[in-house]
Amino acid sequence: xxxxxxxxKPKDRKVKRQKNQKIEDMEIIEIKKxxxxxxxxxxxxxxxxxPDPWSEKSIRDTLENPQARIWxxxxxxxxxxxxxxxxxxxxSETAAxxxxxxxxxxSETAAxxxxxxxxxxxxxxxxxxxxxxxVLDEGEIARIATSPQHRRQGVAVRLLEKMRxxxxxxxxxxxxxxxxxxxxxxxxxxxxxxFAKDGVRKNFYANPPEDAILMSCEVETSGxxxx
Length: 227
What we know:
single chain; 227 residues; alpha+beta; 36% helix; 26% strand
């Protein structure tokens, strides 16, 4: 298994957030080893978010482990259409060169949007995922991540809810994880979710080298938590 870390800050880049994504639009699925599309998308998101990303092979190997689960949250809602912004851009360029060609650009833009709309409408978007290992009454969050465009919209919370329901079924009463000591965003999220600090492991991570904070959480698995 490759070096582990948990929710990471995105690499330095500007991210446009989806403002109107609703929790009702999200669907939780369990990833299976024959779902190559999702395996590839998870690996791509790993590369975008983590300094030590898991490869597709590592993800497939995890899916071969009977004591592991990977859950993902997807949305079948089509992403916002960019026609308006594209049309505005074309209109500005056209006005600067030749006003008579504006209708041509507008028609091209509308045709392009119409042709791609059906494709986007039915294509699921990967919003986030969690990789979870378990033995007896303990579970470990090996990886949890949310697409930068969909953060602060309840994705990670929904993933924890799914883990809690699964833990109820499997009589898992404790969760463990490790997180980079510099990752204040993840540490704050974990504390808010009920995790407590157990200790520090020196030089646990590579690429770049860094200490890990070890955390754990007693899992409340009352009947109301069942999925």
